[in-house]
Structures are given as structure tokens and as C-alpha cells.
């Protein structure tokens, strides 16, 4: 004999009659009855007014914007510091190489002073040394 389905007849689960457990979480919120108001259909689970929900959303957006702004500012400060460090190391290397070149020119000038007889050649060497001195002074000013 076949049993026909009726809404009031409990079905058997594991040899026991199935009883409905209470719902929890999102299912409970979704299963609450809805009411019809002059503003439209609303669920009974709505406890906050709409204005409060938007204020919460705006405050989250404001907090996120502030956090994003702080992170961007921090990254920019670090990048600026890295660029300054790179520029400083470049200027230091340039200053060292100019110092070495100046020392070489001084040694060469000292050796050539003994051999030079004409005043024209010594003037050319001294102008080269003056140019190097001005470049060294400029690199000191940059650092």
C-alpha cells in the first residue's frame, strides 16, 4: 500500500520523524514575514532606518579614503627619500671622480712645470685646472 503525501504528515529521516529545527543567521532573516507599508514592502528584520545605514556606509567610505590617503602619502615619502639617496650617492661619486681628476692634473702640471719653456702651454694647463676646480665647487654646493 502506498502512502500519499499530505502536508501534515511528517516524513521519516533515519527511522525517526523529521521535525523542523529553528532557523538561524541569514535564513532566519530571509524567512521573516514581510509587511506592506505606505513606503513599500519591508521585511520585519529591518531594525535600522535607512538614514543610519547610509551614514554607516559613508563613514566606512571616509575611513577607507583616509586610510588610502595615508598609505599613498607614506609611499610617496619613501619614494622621495629613495630618490634623494640615489641623487646623493650619484653626486658623491661624481665629486670623488672630479677630485681624482683634479689630483691627476695637479701632478701632471707639477711634472710639466719643469719641462715647460713657453708661457702659452702653461696657460692652457692652468685654464683646465680652473675648470676642474669650478666643477668640484659646484658638486660641493649640490651635496
Automatic annotation (TrEMBL):
<dbReference type="Pfam" id="PF23203">
    <property type="entry name" value="KIF21A"/>
</dbReference>
<dbReference type="InterPro" id="IPR056532">
    <property type="entry name" value="KIF21A/B_hel_2"/>
</dbReference>
<protein>
    <recommendedName>
        <fullName>KIF21A/B second helical domain-containing protein</fullName>
    </recommendedName>
</protein>
<feature type="compositionally biased region" description="Basic and acidic residues">
    <location>
        <begin position="121"/>
        <end position="133"/>
    </location>
</feature>
<keyword id="KW-0963">Cytoplasm</keyword>
<feature type="region of interest" description="Disordered">
    <location>
        <begin position="115"/>
        <end position="143"/>
    </location>
</feature>
<feature type="region of interest" description="Disordered">
    <location>
        <begin position="1"/>
        <end position="21"/>
    </location>
</feature>
<dbReference type="GO" id="GO:0005874">
    <property type="term" value="C:microtubule"/>
</dbReference>
<keyword id="KW-0175">Coiled coil</keyword>
<feature type="compositionally biased region" description="Polar residues">
    <location>
        <begin position="1"/>
        <end position="11"/>
    </location>
</feature>
<feature type="domain" description="KIF21A/B second helical">
    <location>
        <begin position="60"/>
        <end position="142"/>
    </location>
</feature>
<keyword id="KW-0493">Microtubule</keyword>
Amino acid at each position: 500500500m502506498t502512502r500519499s503525501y499530505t502536508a501534515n504528515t511528517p516524513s521519516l529521516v533515519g527511522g525517526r520523524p523529521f521535525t523542523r529545527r529553528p532557523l538561524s543567521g541569514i535564513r532566519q532573516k530571509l524567512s521573516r514575514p514581510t509587511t506592506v507599508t505606505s513606503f513599500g514592502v519591508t521585511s520585519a528584520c529591518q531594525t535600522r532606518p535607512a538614514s543610519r545605514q547610509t551614514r554607516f556606509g559613508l563613514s566606512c567610505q571616509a575611513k577607507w579614503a583616509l586610510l588610502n590617503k595615508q598609505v599613498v602619502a607614506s609611499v610617496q615619502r619613501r619614494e622621495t627619500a629613495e630618490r634623494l639617496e640615489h641623487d646623493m650617492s650619484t653626486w658623491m661619486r661624481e665629486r670623488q671622480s672630479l677630485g681624482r681628476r683634479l689630483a691627476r692634473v695637479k701632478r701632471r702640471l707639477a711634472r710639466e712645470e719643469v719641462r715647460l719653456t713657453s708661457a702659452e702651454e702653461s696657460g692652457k694647463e692652468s685654464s683646465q685646472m680652473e675648470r676642474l676646480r669650478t666643477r668640484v665647487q659646484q658638486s660641493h654646493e649640490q651635496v
